[in-house]
Amino acid sequence: MEAQVKRGERLAVIGQMAAGVAHEIRNPLASLRGLAELLGRDVGADDTRRRYVDTMLQSIDRLNRLIEDLLLFSAPRAAETDELDVGAIVSETVSLAQLGLGSRTVAITVTDPGSHLVVRGTRERLIQVLTNIVQNAVQATPDGGAVTVRSEEREGIAVVAVHNTGSYIPPQVRRQLFVPFFTTKPTGTGLGLAIARQIVTSMDGRIEVASDPQAGTTFTVEIPLAARPQPAVAMAG
């Protein structure tokens, strides 16, 4: 518990710093994009300078996405929450992952969509959590491998387990997976899993990871089920 408290305090400091940096960068970045768009109006599609303008716009958009990630990391708790159908969100996430496979030969299946599981949260943010985990699993799976998503209830907890074959995460890497800005990808920002954990924690849940050289890797998301109102009991007259 002491380690968790220290980690929470450390993440809070990092979150405040990230939010400050993000706000300072956002306004000048918007000005730069506006200026790049103005330059683009005078440069036609066949002009050799068009490539420079497009590269500037793409680079600015990448920075804007990073800014959005930083702001989300610093304040993951949404002001409003709704009852969310875990099964529908799992099915939607898997369908999008299947469409994004392209020429890759990775089997993505849902063993139980968890249609009976309802939690409280923000739909877009829960989709973001599961999309990040499923996409990571697909990227880590070699062609011919499989990604399986399973949902179930355990003692009032909605559990979504994402398992992939053919990959192993050593303990020293597992300990840093949710640390902000830590990444093993050459083009990653290291914020995806950190934000995912922040979102799930804001829903009073947790994310765990287990990995075995033979069995593969499993990310497990656990979120308390939404409390259901108790039926009124008729009083005897």
Describe the fold and architecture.
By secondary structure, this protein is α+β, with helices and mostly antiparallel strands. It folds into two domains: 2-74, Helix Hairpins; 82-224, Heat Shock Protein 90 (2-Layer Sandwich), CATH 3.30.565.10. Helix content is 47%, strand content 20%. The chain contains six helices and seven strands, in the order H-H-E-H-E-E-H-E-E-H-H-E-E. The protein has a five-stranded mixed beta sheet, covered by helices on one side. A hairpin with a 2-residue loop joins strand 4 (146-154) and strand 5. Helix 4 packs antiparallel against helix 6 (192-202). It is globular. 25% of the residues are buried. The mean pLDDT is 84.
